[in-house]
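We treat protein structure as text, and this decision shapes the records that our systems exchange. The tokens are whole numbers drawn from a learned vocabulary of local backbone shapes. One such record is reproduced below, unchanged from the form in which we store it:
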Amino acid sequence: ISAEALNVKTASGKGRSAGEMFAHIHNVRVMWMEQTPELAKGLAKVEKEKAGDKKLLRKSLEASAKAMEALIGKGIESGGRVKGFKPHVTAFVGYAIAHESYHHGEIGVVLGQSGHPLDKKVAYGMWEWGVR
């Protein structure tokens, strides 16, 4: 995704830009880490005005992905619970996948509608898990 495309919105101009949606995914992960402060160390939310910074988004998403992995592992090790999430850790994983998948689809729609469609290799690659 080009730096320019991170800042575009749909034709109506409403809603979040692609960059803002990536930032939102990261920020929700950070919110969950705040329940377990040792996992939140080194993580900072991405503010709306920085959502077009491709390097910052990548660095932030990679760091929060590692933290999510640690949070899920901790949930498994501590009897199947994630602090602050009522059901069990398996349901938390389902919630996280559903939340992020929704926004991945939304990002694809915003990019396509704004004239910056995902490259076919990237778009199909999200679903060809055995190949990528």
Notes: Residues 33 and 39 are 6 Å apart (CA to CA). The helical segments are 3-6, 18-33, 37-40, 54-77, 89-113, 120-125. The first strand starts at residue 81 and ends at 82. The longest helix spans residues 89-113.
